[in-house]
Amino acid sequence: MIRIAFLAYRGSMTSGGQGIYLYALTRELAALGYEIDVFVGPPWPDPMPWAEVTRIENQCFWGRRFAPGPGAFLPSPDPLRIFAPLNFYEFAVTRFGFLPESFAFSLRAARAVIERMRRGRRYQLVHDVQSVGYGLLWLRALGLPVVTTIHHPLSVDRRSSLRRDRSFREKKGTLTFYPVRTQRRVARRLDAVLTSSDASARELTAGFGVRADRVHRVRNGVELTLPGSRRSRPKSPELLFVGRCGDPNKGLEYLLAALAELPSSLTLRVLDGFPAGTALERQIRELGLCGRVRFSGKVSSQELDRAYRSAAVVVLPSLFEGFGLPAVEALAAGTPVVASRAGALPEVIAAAGAGVLVPPADPAALARAISQVLEHWGTEHARALDARTRIEQAYAWSRIAADTARIYQRLLERG
Questions:
Q1: CA–CA–CA angle 122, 191, 110 (5° rounding)
Q2: 150-208 pLDDT per residue, tens
Q3: Which residues contact 317 (CB under 8 A, 6 or more apart)?
Q4: Which of 16, 142, 218, 387 is most exposed, with the fewest beta carbons within 10 Å of its own?
Q5: What is d(CA 246, CA 280) in angstroms, rounded to the nearest whole number?
Q6: C-alpha span between 338 and 251 (Å, rounded)
Q7: Which CATH number fits domain 238-394: 3.30.450.20, 3.30.200.20, 3.20.20.140, 3.40.50.2000?
């Protein structure tokens, strides 16, 4: 029996693609007969009865640095835990603008794996989900094969953030924040790096220096709900944006600029919290969009599905996507998609056989494409409905798990 230790520094499916990936992939691997132990940081995943789950401490000091009130940064319920070595390290470096979360998680998780091994547990392989911290090298030094999944390298995020920064202080903050050097060093030393697109694979070899023979392209899977049904164009059409406003790769500012060029009857729904005090808030005010943009915050998977099915067009104005999950989910629900020709999005649109691509960072082109899709909405809606079968074949989690298992087997046979 093959037992895999999965490491993921964020486990919730609402905290990003890594939570969805962890949940679905471990479930399908368990169905193939693998024994799964999960070592995971907060926010915690949904119950995973197919795996033994160990929760790894994380005091979330980066988020606490913005919390109001004296002492809000202290651990709860025991404030003295701030003096534990890794806790104090995390607290201290966040004060200088560093993000230590993935590094500290990798050390804590490696320690937990080793402790489990001391008690008699045997692991044949370790699979990290995007923490890419130095703790992985500790495990590899013990003779364990170590695999990591990187949907896209942090070098992409840093590049997009620097492009958006307007002052020396902002650029310095970007260069400090992203642990690109750490991830580059660690990724080059692991046995295999899994990624979900050709675009990300190219970035890993060119930007991170990972040997091409160690980079394996394995598509992400998609949890599909019921197929979309034929419907009429909404009488009051609304665009939908799914993603984190603060992520410089998501390109929300270009969609806002495009919206200002479109008829005032067209509105936009953003599935994230309101970006108070940011450049996005100023842009919304300056463009006169306050009454046309609504922020719904994070929503449940059921509400997300309803949002896809009620939207007129789902828009991904991204500067880079390692996969582009909202594009696949929207098309599978029968809703037209307009997306940037960036990162993995051209690969996703080609696999689905539906959707419209535009140049990235081009609000005028984005506005024209949205207008054309709305004008020919019935045709684009029919194309999206027809894409369902192709999406099911390309992105079934059972297929993704089988492809991943084949990589495991090659590594284990290699010894």
A1: 45
A2: 988 888 888 888 888 888 888 988 888 888 999 999 999 999 999 999 999 999 999 89
A3: 241, 250, 251, 252, 254, 255, 258, 339, 340, 360, 366
A4: 142
A5: 9
A6: 13
A7: 3.40.50.2000
